[in-house]
Amino acid sequence: MASASLTDAQRETLELFDGFGEPLTTSDVAERLDLGRRSAYGRLERLVDCGVLETKKVGANARVWWRRPDAPSPDREADGEVNPRPGDEDTLFGLLVDAVEEYAIFLLDEDGNVRTWNPGARKIKGYEADEIVGEHFSTFYTDDDQAADVPEQNLAEAVEHGNTEDEGWRVRKDGSRFWANVTITTVRDETGDIQGFAKVTRDMTERREREQQLRRERDLVDQIFETSPVGLGVLTRDGLERTNPRAAEIYGSPTGDIDEYTVGEPAVYGPDQTPVPPAERPNARVFETGEPVHGWECQLHSIDGQHRWLSVSAAPLTYDTGDVERVVVATKDITHLKEQSRRLERQRDDLEAELDEVLERVDDAFCALDEEFRFTYANQRAAELLQVHTGELLGECIWDLYPDATETPVWNGLREAMETQATTEFEVYGEELEAWLQASVYPSETGLSVYFRDITDRKLRVRELERYETIFETVDDGIYVVDTDGYLTMANEGYAELTGYPHEQLVGMHVSELVDEETVEKARTHEQELVANERETARFEADVLTADGGTVRAEGAFSIIESPNEGYERIGVVRDISERVARERKLERQRERLAALDDLNRVVRALSEAAIDQSTRVEIEQTVCEGLAATDSIQFAWVGEVDGETMTVCSRAEAGVGGFLDEGTVAFDLDESGRSDLIGRAVKTREMQVVEDALNHDEDEHLREQAIEWGFRSTATIPITHEGAFYGVLNVYTDRPDAFVGAEGDAIGHLSEIVGHAISAIEQKRALRSDEVVELVFHISDFFGAFDFPSADGRVTFDRAIPVGDGVYLEYGTATPEMSEVLEALVEDLPHWESIQFLDGDSGEDASRFELRLVEPPLLSSLTAIGGYVDRAAIEEGCFQIRLHVSPSADIRQVIEVVEEAYPMADMISRRQVTKTSPMSDGRSRLLVEDLTDRQRTVLETAFFSGYFESPRPIPGKHLADTLGIAGPTFHQHLRKAQKKVLAHVLDS
């Protein structure tokens, strides 16, 4: 038997038994080689067959393997071979199969199940031996082939013919597919019985893809070859191998086929019309030199008798040795281009001749320079400007003739045009010529064409125009020019800013778009007067219409200038005088307002004194209305009484109203719906309400209609109040806008306060003189519970509340001992209870006298304002009861609302009209009260109710003086005078 070498896989396995150490199990070998157990077992069996390993079965299913001490070296012997056991051909075949990794070689049993597995099969199909041995070989086929019984058909063919060969898709372990070449051979024994099948598989995927790629490339080359607009041909040294249809057209073959013609048969001529032999043509040169030829031009006398100009390119196709195998020739018909070139040459010659004639007639200086900046042409005008004879310029470099011209605009301009091949223009001042020149440089492939023009006059005009434009644009006022048809031909930025139009839009606009028709007519009249020399300039004021739809008050002046075309134009200057006009109007309004304010202040002072002197409310109100209407600043005025139930105002006094109040009453609205109702807002807020411009008051259409009918612009409604009491509204009207604000409004408001104070005083005196009063009794059953205080037994009486000024009252009363702490706690809790002091002395009935300081108590302030007073108030056993006396003419509903607002938990238990029965009800007592001043009465009441006249005195006079905010001597002075008046009335009675 021939010897066989160990495979790499077998050597790898044998290296695990380095030396002659302890035996290894199959599992040990499989784990160390990272193989399946069956694959490792196969390798170990073959090494035993080669005589390098020994094996022994241990246990029921295990086996160990070790290296024989006398085993030959795994390396090759001197002759490079390993000698298997003589006569063991199966071992030799096994070694051969294991050495092949490019092919999958394995045996199938007669049913098609896998019996053996080699490394090539593992590499190609991805299965380990222990994973696939025993499985049917149809596992390697696709689902479609399995469904078509392809595996069974292949076995059947192998049985019938001895073997079969097939190509198709096969499936790996991971599910990927590969293109396989498969050979299946039937294996029979000596008797001819089928023992199984030998199957050889080769992965042909890459070769198949290469073949497909080559096929696509060949098809693409064929398509390009056949459709190319250029004639293509492939030549060998023996002649023409292949051409495309375009080549047949170029060579003039009537059949479209030139394969029968030999190389060099058509006649070919060079550009000089000399014949070109075949050996000098591009294909022969490429065969000879191996170098490509590009753009070789010739004239072909084609088969059809046509003469064609061709551009020929040839490139070699070489062997691996570098020798030229074939030549590819590309031929392009350039007959049309040649004819066009000749035509252009003739045109160029004609143009050059014509240009020479034109240049001689050109007034501008002209010269031509080549690529080296040498003069090739110059006309007479150019020679004159350059101050040299024409003959001395030709052929000379401009930089040699004029070395000082380097690094000048001339140098930069010519260099830029030459380098960029773009038209260039520049201006230069010639010192020697004392002139400005403008140069236009036109580049071409052969050099530069330069035109010079003397622009000195234009330059001077431009500079002069720039100076005018600088002035034109730097002036803040608007400047414009209008033609005879009334269209703007010029306008500066000042005019654009004034009108709000862009400068570009202004030019071309008609003046009627910027001013009204009256202004246009006025300007036209002034223009005619200027033309007739009846005036030198025209000046007037007008409103300029702006782009945003507004107007700007402006002052304008214009005059007449000659037009660049014919006739004349109107140039004008416009200045925005809006601020000046606004200042003038503001000053005028201020003068009017100051005059009105001075007049109003004078009237207010007079009316204040007059109102105080009146004896009745009606006289006060009428005096105020007549005094206001008699001024120059107020048109008319009226005082209205508010009826809260009918929501109307009835006029009580008026002056200058005419028929404004013919309806007798005016309705008002307290709804907060947003409607502008002066009277309603004044009643609700108790604040003065003003409309500064009734003509433009969009919120109240009725008010605007009244303003138009009665001629007033501003109106104000002022509530007449005093310390919370509301007596009505004073309404004033004037023909001045923006009136009754600022100092003027303050004066009117001050007058209203004085009127309210005067009415309050009269109401109080009237209440004191009157024997009839309305008695209101209110009861709170759990007074302390309303303030989250624990109920307390005891009694508190409130004897008298004395106003001492600035909304401050001194409340004097008595409290039983258990109520003292309760009152102190109420001071901390009620905001208008400021402080409490218990006075020394015995008030009787085990009660202590106290002095409670109140600040703006809501109930007392409102009562005092309408002439009412608290007749009795007391807290007893946790219940609070208060009895009020008010004048029958007072707004009783308003009093009830004030009480309910101050004490929401109060219930009115009685309302009746009674006759006062106190000693003060007789006439002499009323005269006494009226004879006392307010301060004397306050001092007397404070001393009396504080216990000052008791003995011993519970409180010193200094304390009372401090409480009233006056000096001690002043307190005693007022007290003595009050006592004197009281004693005088008592003694007289």
From TrEMBL:
Residue ranges, annotated region (Disordered): 68-87
Taxonomy, superkingdom: Archaea
Coiled coil: 327-368
Basic and acidic residues biased stretches: 68-79
Domain PAS span(s) in chain numbering: 105-162, 351-421, 464-534
Gene3D superfamilies: 3.30.450.40, PAS domain
Domain PAC: from-to ranges: 164-216, 294-346, 538-589
InterPro entries: BAT_GAF/HTH-assoc, Biofilm_reg_signaling, GAF, GAF-like_dom_sf, HTH_bacterioopsin, PAC, PAS, PAS-assoc_C
SUPFAM superfamilies (alphabetical): GAF domain-like, PYP-like sensor domain (PAS domain), Winged helix' DNA-binding domain
Keyword vocabulary terms for this entry: Coiled coil, Transcription, Transcription regulation
NCBIfam families: sensory_box
Protein name: PAS domain S-box protein
Protein's organism: Haloferax namakaokahaiae
Taxonomic path: Archaea, Methanobacteriati, Methanobacteriota, Stenosarchaea group, Halobacteria
